[in-house]
Specification:
The chain is an alpha+beta fold. The chain has helices at about 20-25, 55-65, 75-80, 85-95; strands at about 1-5, 15, 35-40, 45-50, 95-105, 105, 115-120, 125-135. The mean pLDDT is about 95.
């Protein structure tokens, strides 16, 4: 298992972590297998996307339509009064982990596909991303 830290600026930041995931694979003693990438915490998520300015804006905007910051009553907010009920819903929807194959020590990704961490919390966070490898 390898892990690395990611510093976010807060809500809706999309951070390309592809290079760090690839470094974890390159440092391992396996050439073919599956990498599971997992973010520790309940208000961030891991997914893939084309990491380009338009989609980096479109993806959080789409999730804002699904789980808006205001205009909806969140039970989490009623209990904790921390203002991030929508953050938890978005992170749960996208999910904390992703499994990606690797062959000959390289991630199997499309030409325009990157691995990203999406921060949903309303404040800056320090995130731990864990990369667990299974292979030969």
């Amino acid at each position: 298992m390898k892990s690395f830290a990611v510093e976010s600026d807060g809500e809706n930041q999309v951070i390309d972590v592809t290079e760090e995931v690839q470094k974890a694979i390159s440092a391992a003693d396996v050439s073919d297998g599956v990498a599971t990438v997992f973010v520790v915490g309940s208000t961030a998520a891991i997914t893939t996307m084309e990491f380009e300015p338009g989609l980096v804006k479109d993806f959080p905007a789409m999730l804002g339509r699904v789980a808006p910051k205001s205009g909806v009553e969140y039970e989490h907010q009623r209990r904790w009064h921390d203002g991030n009920g929508h953050s938890h819903v978005k992170a749960s929807l996208v999910g904390p982990s992703l499994s990606i194959p690797f062959v000959d020590g390289e991630l199997v990704l499309g030409e325009w596909q990157q691995v990203v961490l999406v921060e949903f919390d309303i404040r800056a966070r320090s995130r731990e991303v864990v990369v667990q490898l299974m292979g030969e």
